Amino acid sequence: MNAPQKILSSFNAEKARADFEILSRQVYGKPLAYLDSGASAQKPRIVLDTMRDFAQSEYANVHRGVHFLSAAATDRYEAARRTVQKFLNAAREDEIVFTKGGTEAINLVSYSYLAPRIQPGDEIVLTVMEHHSNIVPWHFLRERQGAVLRWVDVRDDGSLDIEALDAAITSKTKLVAITHMSNVLGTITPLKEIVARAHAKGVPVLADGCQGAVHEVVDVQGLEIDFYAITGHKLYGPTGIGALYAKRAHLKGMRPFNGGGEMIREVAKDRISYADPPARFEAGTPPIIESVGLATALDYLSAFDRKAVAAHEHDLLTYAREQVRQFNWLKVIGDAPGKGAILSFEAEGMHAHDLATILDREGVAVRAGHHCAQPLMERFGVSSTSRASFALYNTRADVDALIAGLHKARGILV
Amino acid sequence: MDNALRELYQEVILDHSRHPRHHGVLEDASHKAEGYNPLCGDRVMVYLKLDEDGRVADIKFEGKGCAISQASASMMTELLKGRSRAEAEKLMSGFLHLVKGEKASDLSEDDRETLDVMSGISEFPMRVKCATLAWHTYKNAVEEGKNAVDERNNAVEEGAS
Questions:
Q1: Cβ pair B65:A351 closer than 8 A
Q2: B73–A contact, CB cutoff 8 A
Q3: What pLDDT, in 10s, does the model give residues B54-101?
Q4: What is the domain extent for residue A15?
Q5: Cα–Cα distance, A410 to A348 (Å, whole number)
Q6: What pairing do the DSSP bridges indicate for beta strands A123-127 and A173-179?
């Protein structure tokens, strides 16, 4: 506990906490300990204010009108794209496609990139710790086109065995689809090495960055990754917006996913041609106000020393982990070295939902259930777990409330 | 402890969840159904032996889940055993009203007294589904569960031949 102290000095969680009004509210007369940011993060005041200000002063539809407001809104929307580009360190702004979330970003790759390339028997490599959003789109290709899903197991501590992953990539593999950070285990995957191994065999890689981009600094050029999906609402931004990063070469060859306004070059009665990326993949009126909110959230997050934020979150994880280690009635699921700030566990004699209900009455918000990761639940032989996930605004007081709540629940249920 | 929690996790409920009644497989079931709560991944299997006029001659359940779902299933088996189809339907309707905090006028005084321990759930709308899972599964077993048993028996017979 010596090293983090110095780093912590450059990030003040108490100060950041004041930016999130909702955190000062009470639930059932108790202070709120919000430990469910892995499901959705709270939004700082500046995000909410900026969205309202934009809607009140500069809003109109984008890319359509020639009028003043439409031009202003288009500028903001395209500026938001550049903010995402910078956040992920993409080489070009047109490598960023706005989507309605991480799920749509992955579905876009499934429908527009992979589906046309799949022959029966072709393989998609994924791990047992994927979120359903990085499983179901590939199941579609299994059901509809005869693709084969090759599952890579994790070790008992939740870490990824890179050799097992490597061995699963064969001449039949068309894509490796893997999480950057598990939403249950907290495991952070070595994306750079995964990409290197896959590329050595000519296989592209998609990373589900919905958790990873929140806690790690992402450099898609450094990773040389082909596809990287993010969602706004876990990044302290609004719901209804996410983004797909894809290499320009891939996007150029991809057919459209949704059809509608905005994504065409020319429509005639008997022929059609499509706009260049990213517009080709942004049919219809996009989430305009949300794009402004997302950009503000990314600016907010990037203004902090990200390494210090990660160290702060990790300090909370360690603080919680050390205490629950003493409980012989509690089993932590996911203890991979260098994991992100997520604590999943099973408590003897206490079903996750009963536990979550009792914690809730203590003001402690945790997630209970299968976390949209049923193959992982099966891997660890559980039907559900409880999960505390830590964000930049959490403090040790939140962990203390969790620990006190655990004792209380045990008093009631066991 | 706050009163709502005390109401929810009272001793009767915890006793049912720790020591569920009629738990296990009913080998000579005439009807069965599986219930699944996609929200939490909990499963329950309800086995029924209905006599000719639809009376519940025997009932068992299997499954793993939270204290509320297990206690509710256990209490349900105790209450349903020996009931006619019409009585069971009234009981279920009354129970569904009770856990939603509505007036349970369908319930007899005795049943209301027995089920009163479950009424605390109405303060926890997110958990009502836990309490109703077994009951909905019972209903499925009665309405569609005969085929489930027949199919299995046929499969076993075909496999044997």
A1: yes
A2: no
A3: 999 999 999 988 999 999 999 999 999 999 999 999 999 999 999 999
A4: 3-31+306-413
A5: 9
A6: parallel
